[in-house]
Amino acid sequence: MRAERPAKAERFWPITLASVAILFALWAGVSVLGLVNPLFLPGPGLLFSSFIDLLFNGYKGYSLPAHIGVSLMRVALGFGSGAIVGTLIGLGMGAMPLFDAFAAPFVEFLRPLPQLAYLVLLIVWFGIGETSKIVLLFLTALPVAAIAARDGVRNVPRERIQAARALGASPGQIFRHVIFFSALPEIFVGARLAIGIVYATLIAAEIIAGSDGIGWLVFDAGRFLRSDYVFVGVLLIGLMGLGLDFGLRTLERRVVHWAGK
Amino acid sequence: MAEGIPAAEFVRFADVSVVFGRGAASVQALQAISLSFAKGDFVCIVGPSGCGKTTLMQTLAGFLRPSTGAVSVDGQPIAGPGPDRGVVFQQPALFPWRTVEANAGFGPEMRGIDPAQRRARVETWLARVGLTEFRHRYPYELSGGMQQRLAIVRALVNEPVLLLMDEPFGALDALTREKMQEELHAVWRTSGMTVLFITHSVEEAVYLGTEVVVMSPRPGRIIERIAAPFARKEGDRDIRAIKSSPAFVAMRERILGLIWGMAEG
Q1: For the purposes of burial, counting CB atoms within 10 Å of the CB of B243, is it exposed (0-12), middle (13-18) or buried (19 or more)?
Q2: Which fold has domain B1-84+163-173+193-265?
Q3: B125 touches chain A (CB under 8 A)
């Protein structure tokens, strides 16, 4: 018996389309009528030509794809390593109370800590190159992934484990074949949460220390009042974020197809 | 059958007590339960909520160690769960990431039984309960009744000597429930398996059981054991005819009276 759920917003996609179209029309109208200084709000035409300009000429020594690529590479390495190590730690915490007691203080302390609070320490330790940024993102993703995995293990229905035991599975088999898969939906929820935080942290980190990346591009363009570049950058950052989440959600639906059913 | 073990003591609860918690907050769930039954019996346990039916089953499954007393099967004391005792819960407790087929074959797969033999057993049992066409589906694509059939098949594919069922049909609608009772009865009749079956439904117990054990709550004790003739009845197995026969109704009412008496007292 399933409780009635509100209809999904996807069903009303024409409304979504309309809201984007209305905003776009307002923006175009305002700029065509010259109601707002382009410095505050560059129009669609200017924005498009700035985008083309960035695409062909790059920004301060790097092409636009290079800026985007380096940012995505940082996300991939930082998030990837942090999510994998965090998930392993969390699985261990969920399965072994002794290890939970050992690791919990670090994980629990790290999780609510604002990443930018310790970024300076990482720069002192690892320099202003790639390492400090990737370590930052690693430390951002790790506790989120760890706690999701730990909770996933803890929430495995008891009867599912009892059923496996009664069928003759060994403790190791139960962990690999029952607990891990039972926790997988929560691991994915944790991963999506982590990638959002990692992405936000990356942009902030590139602003504070960097000379490339899409976050740095926006910040640097802002310093020179190139609001057209800032707008292009912000739009790209937003679209990339949507793309990352969409990618992870698609993967989630394929891998944990049973979740929520 | 192990040597020196009387046939009527294939399964034996010897003076089993279970206490949860300690000191003033402790609860005695079972008090000095002694109960034995023979191979091939279908023993149904009924009683009001909180009478420790599930606790009793859990000591036999090996999920719970008795505080005092011992439980044995074929003379062997229970040290933990094992594939010789299949367990079916009220919720099917399936593995939702595995297909119907992979759920059914879980036990033999974990125990390293030859894949060809495993597939043959899975095929046989899925066919028997009408799940063959769903073998590549996932549990969430099945109805509640089919999910519970699969949970039973998953236990049977392991070829246990004992099947322990804790209100397996409690979550099903009345019609599905009755169909499942017929199917389970047919499986038991043809396999000669030993079953311990816990239920809230006295009617179900009288229909399925060779023996009905009535328990009382807090602390859980056995107050009566009643031999039921209907499960072994030959000839016409029409379920409605059996359940509406005067002998059946009389036994059902007598047991219900026992349970009602406890509720009032």
Answers
A1: middle
A2: Rossmann fold (3.40.50)
A3: no
Q: Least CA distance to A173: which residue of chain B? A: B110
Phi first, then psi, for residue B157 (nearest 5°) are: -60, -25
Q: What angle do CA B87, B90, B95 make, to 5 degrees?
A: 70
Which value does ipTM take for this structure?
Answer: 0.89
Query: How, if at all, do strands B221-227 and B68-73 pair?
Result: unpaired
Please list every residue in chain A whose beta carbon sits closer than 8 Å to the beta carbon of residue B151: 163
Q: Which of B89, B91, B111 sits opposite A168 (nearest CB)?
A: B111
Q: Dihedrals φ, ψ of B156, to 5°? A: -75, -30
Q: Rounded to an integer, what distance in angstroms lies between the CA atom of residue A131 and that of residue B116?
A: 52
pLDDT of residue B3 exceeding 90, the answer is no
- Three-state DSSP class for residue B20: strand
Is B86 in contact with A166 (Cβ distance < 8 A)? yes
Which domains, and CATH codes, for chain A?
A: 47-255 (1.10.3720.10)
Q: Count CA atoms closer than 13 A to B14's CA, side-chain side.
A: 12
The pLDDT, as a whole number, for residue B1 is 47
Q: Which of B228, B162, B227 is nearest to B195 (CA)?
A: B162
* Residue B82 C-alpha, separation from nearest chain A C-alpha, in angstroms: 5
Given an 8 Å threshold on Cβ–Cβ distance, is A167 in contact with B85? no
**B138 contact residues in A (CB cutoff 8 A):** 257-258
Size of interface A-B (CB pairs under 8 A): 71
For residue B261 the two structure tokens come to 């008496």
Whether B182 and chain A come into contact, CB under 8 Å, resolves to: no
pLDDT digits over B154-165, tens only?
999 998 999 999
Question: Cα(B156)–Cα(B85) distance, rounded to whole angstroms?
Answer: 10
A255 near B CB under 8 A: no
Tokens of A250: 């698609």
Contact A167 B158 (CB under 8 A): yes
Closest CA to A142 of A72, A90, A184: A90
CA distance B227 to B49: 22
A166–B91: do the CB atoms touch at under 8 Å?
A: no
